[in-house]
């Protein structure tokens, strides 16, 4: 695909690291309240190839999480892998990167439940939960922050490094 774009559009790009808005994940003053993972996650390419006995369940993949309307689940992950999963999960947070600043080692099961919409301390007064979701584009941040606070973590908006693609040159496409 890159060769096609270079040929048709005379596209020239390069990658560079820039300071961009990120979220730092830090430990709150209340102390960590997470369950230690029953199984550590598996990172293809980083860990040795998986050799499972027949009937043995496959471990969760590092940096993978699931999200539903009630919360986010990431199992068997380190804090760094949890941040990677948060960066990949569909949240309305401007596609920001999450960076582990906790200093906490080990693997944990993250089963974060969002605070109920109608009892969230971050909800604007006078709005129903349905109106809040539509009216407030930062709703995912506050719901995630509430869930993280329950387990002894919190997010702090910050600036941090991230790799970006910079377009140096592009032209109108050549005819077919």
List keywords for this structure.
176 residues; alpha+beta; 4-stranded antiparallel β-sheet; 7 strands; globular
Structure description:
This protein is of the alpha+beta class and about 180 residues long. The chain has one domain (about 15-40, about 60-160). Helices cover about 20% and strands about 30% of the residues. Strands 2-6-4-3 form a four-stranded antiparallel sheet, with helices on one face. A three-stranded mixed sheet has the order 5-1-7. A hairpin with a 2-residue loop joins strand 3 (about 65-70) and strand 4 (about 70-75). It is globular and about 60 Å long.
Shape: globular
Gap between N and C termini = 16 Å
The poorly predicted ranges are 118-135
Count structural domains. 1
Order of adjacent strands in the largest pleated sheet: 2-6-4-3
- Percentage beta strand: 25-35%
Biggest sheet details:
4 strands, antiparallel
Mean pLDDT across the residues is 81
Task: Tell me the number of strands.
Answer: 7
Secondary-structure class: alpha+beta
- Radius of gyration (CA) equals 20 Å
Helix % is 10-25%
Order of helices and strands: HEEEEHEEHHE
What is the count of DSSP helices, taking H or I runs of 4+ residues?
A: 4
What is shown here, in short?
This protein is 21% helix and 31% strand. By secondary structure, the chain is α+β, with helices and mostly antiparallel strands.
């Amino acid at each position: 695909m890159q060769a096609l774009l270079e040929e048709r559009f005379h596209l020239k790009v390069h990658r560079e690291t820039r300071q961009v808005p990120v979220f730092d994940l830090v430990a709150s003053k209340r102390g960590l309240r997470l369950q230690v993972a029953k199984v550590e996650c598996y990172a293809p390419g980083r860990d040795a190839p998986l050799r499972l006995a027949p009937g043995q369940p496959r471990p969760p993949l590092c940096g993978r999480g699931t999200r539903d309307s009630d919360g986010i689940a990431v199992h068997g992950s380190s804090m760094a892998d949890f941040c990677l999963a948060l960066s990949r999960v569909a949240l309305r947070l401007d596609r920001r990167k999450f960076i582990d600043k906790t200093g906490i080692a080990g693997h944990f099961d993250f089963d974060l439940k969002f605070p109920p919409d109608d009892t969230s301390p971050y909800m604007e007064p006078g709005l129903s939960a349905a109106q809040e979701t539509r009216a407030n584009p930062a709703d995912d941040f506050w719901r995630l922050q509430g869930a993280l606070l329950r387990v002894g973590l919190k997010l702090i908006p910050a600036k941090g490094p991230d790799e970006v693609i910079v377009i140096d040159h592009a032209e109108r496409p050549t005819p077919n």
